[in-house]
Design brief:
GO biological process, one term: nucleotide catabolic process
Shape: elongated
Number of strands: 33
Distance between the termini: 84 Å
Keywords: Hydrolase, Nucleotide-binding
Family: Belongs to the 5'-nucleotidase family.
Structural class: alpha/beta
CATH architecture of the largest domain: 4-Layer Sandwich
Helix content: 25-40%
GO molecular function: hydrolase activity; nucleotide binding
CATH superfamily of the largest domain: Metallo-dependent phosphatases
Strand content: 25-35%
Largest sheet: 8 strands, mixed
Pfam family, one: 5_nucleotid_C
Length: 519
């Protein structure tokens, strides 16, 4: 008679601001019985909560879920390797990462190359794989990080597990794109099961045929389980011994798709207390002074949605310096304080909105991406910015460029001049230019009339997966970094916006610079 090894799997969980959803998720995992719980990375960031607590917000939740095995995800490095080492030491489970190295050959963040678990009389070997796209979408990987070929790593480690460690079952816990999971599945037959993350989809992959149903059965080798505590997978693997060798039966996968939609689902009674403690922690640090404003900062909605302001310049300059782009756009609808912020000390509470706070500068945690934009698309975007609908929040605050606009002209013909750096772009005999532009994912996806960014005239260079939030960037550069944190983008951002004021706190003193001239 066959035994059954059961895995509870989830991946890419960022937010802890939905208590009911999280309570339902935790209830199911606490009732898992004799199952193995696996997390495929990206739990420590990014989110507004993680920006404030540097990833510590979710540690009590993860420990409460009784996780057995996890692998690192790219966003787990959002606060640097040293911070990740601190956070992983607080977890009650090991982290795997088998193909990500320092130049010295040492694995990143004290990761385990592989782990072996005895379960129901069987030896199960686990190892972790990073995607080769990590260096392009993770701002804080250690300098010189080497991501080894996932297939080569899988072949090498699975052989060690099978031939030297005598395991019965090999499980790859991965944080890479489905295309690379497929390559491992096809190129490494010794891997029995791949439990993956990075993609935020629910995926079951067997024999090259994706089956996206709540239940699936077959020769399944790849499973991904969605995102953000909304869904998880239960993978049942029948095993039995035949003449001393272990054989796998037909695998069954069940997906819980969206726990928020399940009527009258039981809830874990401990989650409300854990979230309450999190709120108290955030409240206790939210009054921490971050910087000194050397002048009033104009964030009035009626002004910032129609004209250049010094607060808009500050935010746009931070984003451009952080990503080192030619241009940065900050759509005015993302700036919500609606007041003149007086000269003086500003705290974390002033910068971000959290748990029903009001009047913060950046309450939404907008994701900031980078696109390579043609001059034609740039001009269309600027015309949209100064259209009659500008007061709905689409009006752009600018960095790296200046414009002249005549609001008396018809829509679509109001931009009179565009200069990027020292280069006159419009009017010009040629619009054959391209620029790297940082912007919110909201307008990059074509919302607020910015359809020019969602077509062929705007190639994505940094996607949502590799992006930072506006609040995350602001907190990162405003908080004094530890001495060993020497990331170039942080130093560049601080240099761009800090004035030399001789104060204990960083001094900012942004000005109106005629970036938007109304004629």
């Amino acid at each position: 008679m066959a035994d059954q090894i059961v895995f509870y799997h989830f991946n890419d969980v960022y937010h802890v601001n939905q208590p009911t959803l999280l309570s339902r998720f935790a209830y199911d995992f606490r009732q898992k019985g004799n199952a193995i719980t696996v997390c495929s990375g990206d739990a420590l960031g990014p989110s507004l909560e993680s920006s404030m607590l540097k990833g510590e917000h979710i540690i009590p939740i993860l420990n409460h879920l009784d996780i057995d095995i996890a692998c690192y995800g790219n966003h787990d490095f959002d606060f640097g390797e040293d911070r990740l080492n601190e956070l992983s030491a607080l977890c009650n489970f090991p982290f795997l990462l088998s193909n990500a190295f320092h130049p010295s050959g040492k694995l990143l963040a004290a990761a385990k190359e592989y782990v072996i678990r005895e379960h129901l009389g069987y030896r199960i070997g686990f190892f972790g794989l990073a995607g080769t796209d990590w260096p392009s979408n993770c701002q804080h990987l250690p300098l010189g990080t080497i991501i080894g070929d996932p297939v080569e790593a899988a072949v090498r480690i699975s052989r060690i597990l099978k031939e030297q460690e005598n395991v019965d079952l090999v499980v790859a816990v991965t944080h890479m794109r489905l295309e690379e999971d497929l390559l491992v599945s096809e190129g490494c037959p010794l891997v029995d099961l791949i439990l993956g993350g990075h993609d935020h989809d629910i995926v079951v992959q067997g024999d090259k045929l994706a089956v996206i149903n709540d239940d699936a059965i077959g020769r399944i080798r790849i499973v991904k389980s969605g995102t953000d505590f909304r869904s998880y997978s239960v993978v049942r693997v029948p095993v039995h011994r035949v003449e001393g060798k272990v054989e796998l039966g037909i695998i069954q996968v069940h997906h819980e798709r969206d726990l928020s939609l399940v009527p009258q689902h039981p809830e874990d009674p401990d989650i409300p207390n854990l979230i309450s403690s999190l709120h108290q922690h955030i409240t206790s640090i939210s009054s921490k002074p971050l910087f000194y404003a050397g002048c009033p900062l104009d964030g009035r909605g009626s002004v910032i949605r129609t004209s250049e302001t010094n607060l808009g310049n500050l935010l746009a300059d931070v984003v451009r310096a952080y990503y080192n782009t030619d241009i940065a756009f900050v759509n005015s609808g993302s700036i919500r304080c609606d007041r003149i912020i007086p000269e003086g000390v500003l705290s974390m509470r002033d910068v971000v909105g959290m748990f029903s706070c009001t009047h913060q500068i950046l309450p939404f945690g907008n994701v900031l991406v980078v696109k390579r934009v043609s001059a034609q698309a740039l001009l269309r975007a600027l015309e949209n910015s100064v259209s009659d609908s500008r007061t709905d929040g689409r009006f752009l605050q600018l960095s790296g460029m200046s414009i002249e606009v005549d609001f008396g002209r018809p829509e679509g013909s109001r931009i009179l001049r565009v200069t990027v750096g020292e280069k006159n772009i419009f009017p010009s005999s040629s619009l054959d230019y391209f620029f790297n532009v940082a912007m919110s994912s909201f307008i990059a996806d074509g919302f607020d009339g910015y359809t020019c960014f969602s077509g062929s005239d705007a190639e994505t260079l940094i996607s949502v997966e590799g992006a930072m939030t506006d609040t995350g960037i602001m907190l990162e550069i405003l908080e004094e970094p530890p001495e060993e944190l020497t990331f170039e983008h942080i130093a560049r951002s601080r240099k761009a916006v800090f004035a030399d004021g001789g104060r204990e706190l960083p001094l900012i003193k942004p000005e109106i610079e005629r970036r938007i001239v109304v004629v």
